[in-house]
Design brief:
This protein is of the alpha+beta class and 213 residues long. The protein is 29% helix and 33% strand. It folds into 2 domains: 1-57; 64-192, Sandwich (Ctag/Cox11 (Pfam 04442)). The chain contains 2 helices and 10 strands, in the order H-E-E-E-E-E-E-E-E-E-E-H.
Length: 213
Amino acid sequence: MENEPHIGDGVAGSGKAVSCTLTRDAVVASICGFVVVFMVGAAYAAVPFYDWFCRATGFNGTTQVATAAPSDAPLARKIFVRFDANVGPGLPWKFEPEQNEIEVRIGEVVTVFYTVTNQAARATAGVAAYNVAPLTVGAYFQKINCFCFNEQVMGPGEKREMPVVFYVDPQLAKDSENDGLNTITLSYTFYPVRETAPKPLAAGEADKRKGNL
């Protein structure tokens, strides 16, 4: 009879519906997977990008790295630079500036020292985070040499003088927002890094020690 439904047609239609549903789910799953991968990649990329941005602009008080002293003579205008020292939890160091404050001419290259003492009976390592205040002055604070550029490893009970060579960029004097600025604070905080493994003894040295027992 012409009006009777065909069973085969119903099965075929159902199969097409299932196929469309599976295809749609696969597309959605693929998009979600791409979004997750993109977000993870963006999170990892954000750290070096943020670091580069801070160094390039002085944002958040990040100081600049200079390769040489300024070519022009220092300005007559003077400014006070204060020095702050801190140690993060877990690092057994005593860390302090040799001078709390000095007065410098803008554009003058200055060398100051911090003193670090490892108060532990083992070798320890630390790395320094740093910034200047006010935060907007970071773009004008130029470091030529600094212990903060590298990880520092200290032997048991070791005491060390660590220099910082810097100048305040003369461009600061052209920034009208800093006309009333008379003090900059340079702040460091040392944080602990991985434990320093003891160096293995050479065979000959080990034998000598055994002979002394």
